[in-house]
Specification:
The chain is α+β, with helices and mostly antiparallel strands and about 190 residues long. Strand 5 and strand 6 form a beta hairpin. The radius of gyration is 24 Å and the shape is globular. It contains 4 helices and 13 strands. It is about 25% helix and about 35% strand. Strands 3, 4, 7, 8, 9, 10, 11 and 12 form an 8-stranded mixed β-sheet that branches. Strands 2-1-13-5-6 form a 5-stranded mixed β-sheet. It has a single domain, classed as Oxidoreductase, molybdopterin-binding domain (Sulfite Oxidase, Chain A, domain 2), CATH 3.90.420.10. The structure holds the ligand Nc1nc2c(c(=O)[nH]1)N[C@H]1C(S)=C(S)[C@@H](COP(=O)(O)O)O[C@H]1N2 and molybdenum atom. Molybdenum atom (MO) binds next to loops. The site of ligand MTE has 12 residues, from loops.
């Protein structure tokens, strides 16, 4: 009995070890891809540029108040957003002509199209807290990466969300152009 059991142990040990190694390899692989997936933004215009989150954070930053209303009337904000101007990003791939359209999209398939005026923050609808339309104060369209001093959370469209900002906290804009999880911005010439 005893010699038999002694012979069985090494075999068992080897099998268990192989199993543990396979499990460990699987866990490590999952952790690597799930923890901090790298995020890249593709800019498409006259040329194509791919920017990392770090490269976007190194660009000139702007800040302002973002306050949105969703299609079902839920208000989000006001919050302080920080990011880069959409016009600065587009300038890196040849800029936007008056007749061009800009397609901003995300991996979930969502897309919003801006014309040249909207890219500059013009011709967007603005509302007061009672959702009555107001004449538009100066607005800026930014690709935001911080909200209230913290990196934009995934639930709030992070790491990169298109946000319309104003100088004062009392200006509400429509939520539909606030594209969450932006990974591609494309200029289409017309
Ligand atoms: N990527 C992505 N962004 C999106 C949407 C979406 O479905 N996918 N919905 C848009 C619409 S229609 C609205 S009203 C707001 C809703 O913001 P919320 O999802 O934070 O409530 O996000 C906008 N951004
Ligand atoms: Mo919406």
């Amino acid at each position: 009995m005893i010699p038999v059991r002694r012979r069985a142990y090494p075999t068992l040990l080897i099998l268990v070890s192989i199993g543990l190694l396979a499990l460990a390899a699987g866990c490590l692989g999952t952790a690597e891809t799930d923890d901090y997936p790298p995020w890249n933004l593709t800019l498409l215009g006259d040329t194509e540029i791919v920017l990392s989150l770090d490269e976007i954070r190194e660009m000139d930053a702007v800040e302002g108040y973002g306050y949105a209303v969703s299609t079902v009337g839920i208000r989000y904000g006001p919050n302080r957003y920080r990011g880069v101007l959409l016009t600065d990003l587009l300038g890196m791939v040849g800029g936007v002509g008056e007749d061009d359209l800009v397609y901003v999209s995300a991996p979930d398939g969502y897309m919003w199209v801006f014309d040249a005026a909207q890219v500059r923050g013009e011709e967007l609808f603005t509302f007061d807290e009672n959702l009555h339309e107001i004449p538009s104060p100066p607005l800026q369209v930014i690709l935001a990466y911080d909200c209230d001093g913290k990196p934009l959370a995934h639930d709030n469209g992070g790491p990169l969300r298109l946000v319309v900002i104003s100088e004062t906290p009392d200006v509400i804009t429509e939520g539909s152009p606030w594209v969450k999880w932006v990974d591609k911005i494309e200029v289409r010439r017309r």
